[in-house]
Amino acid sequence: MKSLGILLSGRGSNFVAIADSIDNGRIPDARIGVVISNQAAAPGIATARQRGLNALVIPSKGKPREEHDREVVAALKRENVQLVCLAGYMRLLSPWFVQQFPHRILNIHPSLLPAFPGLEAQEQAFAYGVKVSGCTVHFVDEELDHGAIIVQKAVPVLDSDDEHTLAARILEQEHIAYTEAVNIVLSENFEIVGRKLIKRILRER
Asked: What are the residues facing 177 on neighbouring strands?
């Protein structure tokens, strides 16, 4: 059974979606080994504890980035975590952290990358006047919102939308996309060619 580690800084709605998918069998042969937050007041930590999951707070305030990352990685490795899922984790990971889990750290971003990286992506998209937005699950590398793309979901921008309605509809697709991406990565049935993730075709003998 594969062990997942979840990192979050807020309410962690994508964490809940992943946990529900594990409970419902949509992510088979997996469990959440640990949920970690850098914020003691993060609602996602309270949710994890309510669900009976191993939940840790590792404060980041006042610590050098890599020192904090080493504490987080040590906690992940204690639980034999094989896949790290960022679910609203509001910290950039150090290059050292990324190197500990090559092609084993996922992030979700509320835009169709490479469009609108960084913070407030939905607001950026709405202000720019795009007709289609969406979300992207990608591998984490040393650059912000940059690693190879695993899954994208497109969301039309309606004339009646405002930033909040658009963000809500994107979030619905995020929950679907993250489960798909976790299954792809846990299957190990893919390869990275340049920036492209290519799923291998399984041939029956």
From this structure: none
